[in-house]
Amino acid sequence: MQSREEALKNIKLDLKREQRQLFRKRFFGNKSVVIGFILISFMLFVAFIGPLLIQASPFTMNATERLQAPQLSHWLGTDEFGRDLLSRVVHGAQVSILVGLAVTFISAVGGLIIGLYASYYPKLDHILMRICDGLMAIPGVLLAIALMAALGPSPTNVVIALSIVFTPNIARVVRSEALVVKEQTYIEAMYAQGAKGTRIIWQHMAPNTLSPLIVQATFIFAETIITEAALSFLGVGIPAPEPSWGNILYDGKLVIFQAWWMVVFPGLMIIISVLGLNLLGDGLRDLLDPHGSVRKRRKKK
């Protein structure tokens, strides 16, 4: 006969197995998550494996092959300097993905810290939230352009500028969720027992804000890609000759009637990236908040 400890251990293993099976069923049953995951996996493959598979350099110019249409030697054609467009689009994907990852990580960490401390300390809340309100009152693109004009065009400065633009959004989401958690009975009990604020914030409040934080981070990632492309298109983002989807679109704008491929292919990559991230974010929101998805379905009925 099994001992009591072995029986409890087997029960826990069975519960964990059932939870994993339920999560897999919900994951693959959510079309938004699956499609978004496939699109993002494709973009990650293009960004990090693509440059290793392509022989052509994104910087090599050849005046005799300028503005050539897509063909076997240049699958996506060439630009006005004879550079291989496929190579530039693939390397541009790497730039956009890396900038997006960096901005999302910095904004998520900064927004988490600001949101948690603002929700726990009322006096600090007034100061931090007024600063966030001031930053959010300015349209994101305009604020990013102003910051880039002050900092100068470079990949590092793009990350800094966009992190400043998007951190208040995440801070607001974290704060609203943390305020709900703060009113829970177990938080009040810990406070009554003399637990320090740092312990309450990071051991009990922070884990309960991760779900909305992850969902919001996917949307910030998508907005970062669009905003970075807009900055590069306007000439204040990634400086030439470094390839970026935005500056490729700017070059294509000048010859759009002669070389449609210079606008279509980078634009298509932006669409795929943003669509994949938005679908993934919507799917994760339903996956991490099943009660919200049930309410949504009831409203549709």
Fold blueprint:
Layout: H1 4-29, H2 31-48, H3 50-53, H4 85-120, H5 122-137, H6 140-151, H7 155-182, H8 185-192, H9 197-205, H10 210-234, H11 245-254, H12 261-288, H13 290-300
Structure characterization notes:
By secondary structure, this protein is mostly helical. The chain has one domain (31-56, 77-300): MetI-like fold (Orthogonal Bundle). 77% of the residues lie in helices and 0% in strands. The chain contains 13 helices and no strands. The protein has helices at 4-29, 31-48, 50-53, 85-120, 122-137, 140-151, 155-182, 185-192, 197-205, 210-234, 245-254, 261-288, 290-300. It is flat and about 75 Å long. Mean pLDDT is 87; it is low at 292-301.
Strand content: under 5%
Q: Give the CA-CA distance, first to last residue.
A: 52 Å
Model regions low in confidence, pLDDT < 50 over at least 5 residues: 292-301
Query: If you compute it from the alpha carbons, what radius of gyration comes out, rounded to the nearest whole angstrom?
Result: 24 Å
Gross morphology: flat
Number of domains: 1
What count of helical segments does DSSP give?
13
**How confident is the prediction overall: mean pLDDT?**
87
The computed structural class is mainly alpha
What percent of residues adopt helix (DSSP H or I)?
A: over 70%
- The total count of strands amounts to 0
The run of helices and strands is HHHHHHHHHHHHH
The profile of the biggest β sheet is: none
Determine the CATH topology: MetI-like fold
From the coordinates shown, what is the CATH architecture?
Orthogonal Bundle
CATH H-level superfamily: MetI-like
CATH class: Mainly Alpha
